[in-house]
Amino acid sequence: MIEVAIALALVGFLLGSVLVPLQTRVEENQVGTARKALENIRDAMIGFAAVNGYLPCPDATSGGSSNDGIENFSGSFCTSINGAMVVGNVPWATLGVPETVDPWGNRYRYAVIENYARRSPLMFSLGTIVNGALRVCATTACATLVIPSTSDNAVAVILSHGKNGWGAINSLTNTANTAPTSADELENSDNDKDFVYRERTAAGTTAGEFDDVVIWLSRAVLMNRMVAAGKLP
């Protein structure tokens, strides 16, 4: 019996030593998949702007036509404008890409400066365009900016709410998941101009839980692509 107990303990130890790294590898692969999807979405948005002269409006997360992948606007303006910005889901159908759902079954969030998604008058002009107002920060306090130059702020931010999915719109129910509890994750779901981009940390750590995957579109990159497409002089 002692030999059996020792053997079982050894098997348990060996399984644990294998399964933990395997789980970590799976999570890393999921994060990589999400990041690649976000990069593809950003490329599609740049292509949309090159053709139309403006970025797409977000897909609204509430209302009669919400969560259908189609951008929501009325006349020349996006719907649900919050100050100088608009937030919702990625409008995948408008972009002509497959339905965008992250590896954990949630929709990707998309925020854009209203001026850059306005139909008329078109704001993509080297003489009239304003700097982006979205800030990508290292923490919710925004004492340290990931994009330090005020002349090259983000005009759009796209993100996945990560494995925990807190604050995201679930793709099956089209309803919001539980709100985040950590300050940095809450910053990425509170519909204001500030977003947090930093390394992942687990719950219970000093920094707090954070597993969001965040990328952005800078003003400089967008202007370069618009000039190359002949939309700007």
Quickly count the helices.
5
Beta-strand percentage range: 15-25%
Numbering strands along the chain, what is their spatial order in the largest sheet?
3-4-5-7-9
The tally of strands reads 9
Based on helices, strands and strand pairing, what is the structural class?
alpha+beta
The biggest sheet, with number of strands, parallel, antiparallel or mixed sense and barrel status, is: 5 strands, antiparallel
* Overall form: globular
**H/E series:** HEEEEHEHEEHEEH
Low-confidence stretches: none
How far the N terminus sits from the C terminus, by CA atoms, comes to 83 Å
Give the number of domains: 1
Determine the fraction of residues in helical runs and give it as a percent range.
25-40%
How would you state the average pLDDT, rounded? 87
Please give the radius of gyration in angstroms.
21 Å
Overview of the structural elements:
The protein is α+β, with helices and mostly antiparallel strands and 233 residues long. It has one domain. The protein has five helices and nine strands. It has helices at residues 2-52, 92-95, 114-117, 183-187, 219-228; strands at 73-74, 77-78, 81-82, 85-89, 109-113, 135-137, 154-160, 194-196, 213-218. A five-stranded antiparallel β-sheet has the order 3-4-5-7-9. A two-stranded antiparallel ribbon has the order 1-2. The chain has a two-stranded parallel ribbon with strand order 6-8. A hairpin with a 2-residue loop joins strand 3 (81-82) and strand 4 (85-89). The longest helix has 51 residues, at 2-52. The model has no long low-confidence stretch (mean pLDDT 87).
